[in-house]
Write a structure and sequence with these properties.
The chain has one helix and two strands, in the order ββα. The chain is rod-shaped. The protein has two domains: 30 residues, no CATH class; 42 residues.
Amino acid sequence: MPDWCPKCNAMLTEGTRVCPRCGTSLGSPIIDEDAELNRKTIIWYSVYTIGIALGPIIITLCIGLLCVFLYFR
């Protein structure tokens, strides 16, 4: 749905801060809070998944290095 300038009634694109026709300041654009929440959720799940995937690999490498260190000692 298009936005309209309150002063000159020009049609505005979404997220416009200043009317291109009359120069009226329209304030800050509306931020979609659901999109921001979705980004944060995706980042959190990505970090969580990478941690689960890398955890066993790191533990296995530590045990292997410990065994090698103790064997050649």
